[in-house]
Amino acid sequence: MLKGFIDTNVLLYAKDATEPSKQKIASLWIEALLRRNAAVLSGQSLREYYANMLRLDRRAGATEALRAEIGVLREFVP
User: Fold this and answer.
1) Cα–Cα nearest to 42, from 2, 13, 3, 73
2) CA 36 centroid distance within chain
3) Neighbouring-strand partners of residue 4
4) Per-residue pLDDT tens for 34-61?
5) Cβ neighbours of residue 30 under 8 Å, at least 6 residues apart?
6) Are 33 and 6 in contact (CB under 8 A)?
7) What is the pTM of this model?
8) What is the predicted pLDDT for the residue at 61?
9) pLDDT at 74 (0 to 100)
């Protein structure tokens, strides 16, 4: 099966409401790969994503939600 690597930038674009076209494309790409169990992530990409999201999202509860998301995404790190 063909796999697709999800880079840090793609993860960040999927959350960036200031760039709606990039957000939509990134979200669709990630969803398609996850649905097909074809996603590949690196530990480095997850750490970069976590650090950037912590800096960008200071809302109450954001850290806990981000940790849960990282827990799910960690399953795709070989």
Assistant:
1) 73
2) 16
3) 39
4) 999 999 999 999 999 999 999 988 888 8
5) 6, 10, 11, 14, 39
6) yes
7) 0.88
8) 85
9) 95
Alpha carbons 18 and 16: distance in angstroms, whole number: 5
Please report, for residues 4, 29, 37, 68, the alpha-carbon distance to residue 56 in angstroms, rounded to integers and kept in the order given: 26, 22, 28, 17
Phi, psi of 77, rounded to the nearest 5 degrees? -95, 120
Instruction: Provide the 8-state DSSP code for 34.
Output: H
The contacts of residue 78 (CB under 8 Å, 6+ apart) are: 40
The whole-angstrom separation of Cα 66 and Cα 43 is 15
Q: Which amino acid is located at 64 in the chain?
A: E
Tell me if residue 39 falls in helix, strand or coil: strand
Looking at the chain, list the stretches that DSSP marks H as alpha helix, in order from N- to C-terminal side: 8-13, 20-35, 43-56, 62-73
Q: Is-contact 34 46, C-beta < 8 A?
A: no
Structure tokens at 67: 């940790």
pLDDT score, position 32: 95
